């Protein structure tokens, strides 16, 4: 009997050790870009929101397109440390294990005198964005808002002495943009008890609960009480338990009942309703297939989140627009990131691309805003057995579909030389079709039980994607 009990206890110990090793292995992957398998998880058939939850997330599902902003002390570095090029941006402190005292000293010169909240929000509107999410505190632990919890914030620790989060909230309210806040609730490299800093306090035994109770949770309360954000956007949630995630979500909703919370509040697969309202895929990495639950792709305009002077590898507009259309066709949103300078400017390579996107959306927004997923789903690819293994093989991205009741929008991305586009079969009968931005340009349609053939005009109507509007019979 004693031997059996020892065996059981040993097996339980091994099981717990294995789980701990798996978590450690997963958290060790954290870096400047987050992979799909760290936080994303498919949600195809298990999304069953209550009526209240549907109403809470309705504006988000209609909005489709938002701006992400990474702005903080790391912007002061601009991709350099002591004159040398440095990787990581907002991750540079950890990736290069910089001395925390020297990093803190960046606050002495952080003075974004060119910051203008209304100009930033006006750019968002011109780009066709409907909401924003900005870093109120990233992993470096510096607060970009006036906080009574710590003096290590932009109002108390810098020459700027202003609260840009407050100014942006007011500008968003004036201009009709939903306002969201990113907050690093687990990682805080400025705090001995926070998660992530393994070099500044060697030998110190961290107390994660102390950090959460004395800094993170009080600051999240401040953000909810002072700015009433529409979204709380969490990230890299090392050591956040289910219980802590539920506590944070309940506290936030006790102050802002309709606040939306993303799935990165907790490590691993999304814990779902009622704690989180929408899932997230990887950074610059969309889900492969349609999702039942609302979700969001976050991505960068160049190759970085925070401003780096040397990162001039900006993505072309057609790639950014494809990301938007692709996400919407899979029931998702697109949160596109801008990295302002330490002076508070959004530079031309960002703004010019955003304005180009805005031009396309001004003409074609009907096929994006308030739209639902594709009626097909097999246009993205399929699983095939290759070398004895089941692998997902992506299909050529020649077109994507979005929908509204009684309407199918076909976004023709690569205009065919022969003017022919083949679509899968559709149960509903198509009444007529035409180009969205030129209703006089009719589209000939051949519909059978096997599929649909669209005979298009010779030339595309847009530089990126020309939308064909198919009206269905009642």
Give the structure's gist in a few sentences.
This protein has 474 residues and is an alpha/beta fold. 31% of the residues lie in helices and 20% in strands. Helix 7 (117-126) crosses helix 13.
Topology:
Elements lengths: L1 H26 L8 H4 L11 H13 L1 E5 L3 H5 L2 E2 L2 E2 L6 H4 L4 H5 L12 H10 L4 E7 L16 H4 L6 H12 L2 E6 L24 H20 L3 E3 L8 H14 L4 E2 L17 E2 L14 E6 L16 H13 L2 E7 L9 H17 L16 E6 L2 E6 L4 E6 L2 E6 L7 E4 L6 E6 L2 E5 L1 E4 L4 E4 L10 E7 L2
Helix pairs in contact: 7-9, 7-13, 10-11
What can you see in these coordinates?
The protein is α/β, with parallel strands linked by helices. The protein folds into 2 domains: 32-367, Glycosidases (TIM Barrel); 381-472, Golgi alpha-mannosidase II (Immunoglobulin-like, Sandwich), CATH 2.60.40. The protein is 31% helix and 20% strand. The protein has 13 helices and 20 strands. It has helices spanning 2-27, 36-39, 51-63, 73-77, 92-95, 100-104, 117-126, 154-157, 164-175, 208-227, 242-255, 317-329, 348-364; strands spanning 65-69, 80-81, 84-85, 131-137, 178-183, 231-233, 260-261, 279-280, 295-300, 332-338, 381-386, 389-394, 399-404, 407-412, 420-423, 430-435, 438-442, 444-447, 452-455, 466-472. Helix 7 (117-126) crosses helix 9, helix 7 (117-126) crosses helix 13 and helix 10 packs parallel to helix 11 (242-255). The chain is globular.
Task: Name the CATH architecture of the largest domain.
Answer: Alpha-Beta Barrel
Highest-level CATH class of the largest domain:
Alpha Beta
Q: Order of strands in the sheet with the most strands?
A: 7-6-5-4-1-10-9-8
Strand content: 15-25%
Going by helix content, strand content and strand pairing, the class is alpha/beta
Distance N to C terminus: 72 Å
Number of helices in the DSSP assignment: 13
The CATH superfamily name of the largest domain is Glycosidases
Rounded average pLDDT: 91
Q: What assembly state would you assign to the polypeptide chains in this entry?
A: single chain
Helix content: 25-40%
Main sheet record: 8 strands, parallel
Task: Count the domains.
Answer: 2
